[in-house]
Amino acid sequence: MFDILVFVYEHCRQADLSDDPERVARRLSAAGFENADICAALTWLAGVSRAPQHSLAPLPELGGAFRAYAPREAAKLDADGRGLLLALERSGILSPQMRERVLERSLATADRTLTIEQLKLIVLMVLWHEQAPGRLLMAEELRSSGSTRLPH
User: Fold this and answer.
1) What backbone phi and psi angles, to 5 degrees, belong to 4?
2) Which of 101, 118, 111, 114 is nearest to 2 (CA)?
3) Residue 132: Cβ-neighbour burial (10 angstroms; 0-12, 13-18, 19+)
4) What band does 69 get if pLDDT is binned at 50, 70 and 90?
5) Of the residues 46, 91, 97, 147, which has the maximum number of CB atoms within 10 A of its CB?
């Protein structure tokens, strides 16, 4: 799925996903991706759009707050992944609401434990959906500064 997310990020506009997902699916198929993988990735991406924009009560800024991870979340994100989310939140790249969306989308993956590169891609896709140019530039820098680039 992650190779499809990279392809979508690099070759599609966000409007394409909401306006014409069938066209995006055809483009992915033409690029050689399997139909089952395309369906899973597009369903996952639709979940980014469906996630609530705002929670019922605003989440506190990090200041004195502490985010405890549920066992299921801790199993999905190792200590490095949780540290990355904390660093992104402290640096202002992620708001508490976006952090929760990243966590929700992380749990929606089929992978047992996410690598740092996979988590960075999830962050990038959430920020891409938010259309936050400054934050997106910072996230893109994270993706390109990684020791390995995701294949596609």
Assistant:
1) -70, -40
2) 118
3) middle
4) very high
5) 97
First-last CA distance in the chain: 10
Residue 130: domain span: 2-145
| Chain length of the chain | 152
C-alpha angle 105-97-80 in degrees, rounded to nearest 5: 60
What is the DSSP track for 25-44? Answer: HHHHHHTT--HHHHHHHHHH
**Within a domain: residue 46?**
yes
Structural element, H or E, at residue 23: helix 21-30
| Cα–Cα distance for residue pair 140/120, rounded to 1 Å | 9
Q: 57 pairs with which residues across the strands?
A: none
Residue 91 has pLDDT above 50, yes or no: yes
Domain-located, residue 81: yes
pTM of the model: 0.81
Q: Which residue has the tokens 């019922």?
A: 56
Among 46-55, 75-84, 99-108, name the one with the lowest average pLDDT.
46-55
Q: Please say whether the dihedral angle defined by the alpha carbons of residues 148, 144, 27 and 127, taken in this order, is positive or negative.
A: positive
The total number of structural domains that make up the chain: 1
- CB hemisphere CA count around 44 (13 angstroms): 25
